[in-house]
Amino acid sequence: MKRFELSVLDLAPVKQNKTIHDSFHESLTLAKHTEKLGYKRFWLAEHHNMPSIASSATSVLICFIANGTEKIRVGSGGVMLPNHSSLVIAEQFGTLESLFPGRIDLGVGRAPGTDGLTAKALGRNPMIINEQFPRQIQELQQYFSVENATSLVRAIPGEGCDIPIYILGSSTDSAWLAAEMGLPYAFAGHFAPDMMVHAFQIYRENYKPSEKFPESYAIACVNGVAAETDEEAKKLATTLYQAFLNIIRNDRKPYSPPVEDIDEIWNPMEKAHVLKMLHYSFIGSEETIQSKLTSFQEAFQVDELMITSHIYDEQARLKSYEIIKTAVDGMI
Predict the structure, then answer these.
(1) Which of 119, 194, 250, 320 could disulfide-pair with 112, CB 3.0 to 4.6 Å?
(2) What is the pLDDT of residues 146-155, one digit of tens each?
(3) If residue 187 lies in a helix (H) or strand (E), which one and from where to where?
């Protein structure tokens, strides 16, 4: 079984009876905690118009997290690039890299990170996204290059900064693009499991080595909910189930505390839909998590596993990441 790195994806979750201020400080507490545990990186995901997620101003939040930590890499998982000007993102991440040298990652995706109406408000043009997204990645690479010093348009800060770019995806489209461009690839298995097997196959079989990344690098993002016992973990996971149930019901509200019986909340069709979306969710005790992750890694052979954890109680969430790290250490 291939050895792999362990990292964190955070959404700055907003919880019932708590403020967004609380969300940001809980994210910072989690970053500090996982840094001490030895997690490799801490990424934040851009979302908009979602009362349960506060990471819309992703670059600002990355600065907050990086400033409160010492060595863990901090970045975007990701910036939804067609929502922005390439120059502005180059300047923002050039600023971050200048403030925190050697610690900043730029993960980029093409999805809006929101609903259609909000996507329109962000200024996106859906007719040109597939053409625009690869071009914007090339623009970022150009702005970050030393050679761009002779250009009429320069990213200051940004120029000459060594900021790794990761392509995010939830289907096979970005797998082809990451392979063609010779860039690392992160798949959103935590909510879009169906295409992950095929996407990684496409990426690896078609990878074209680049100067910065001579070999392919595959990251899988999955859900993780760990506790002392399987029963406790299953109860904590009802917050995750409710969050995805709210998505399919279009019921936008902050995350809910766990419940004793989730079957009292969803119907059989909703249950099947939610569990299908959450296929790559690892829920249980240390022993259970270790067994499930071993099977997962034997199948996927990823270079890095990124854990996102929808747990309502802050201390339980910190403990979950601790248990997962111990389980993984026991595997490798």
Answers:
(1) 119
(2) 999 999 999 9
(3) strand 185-187
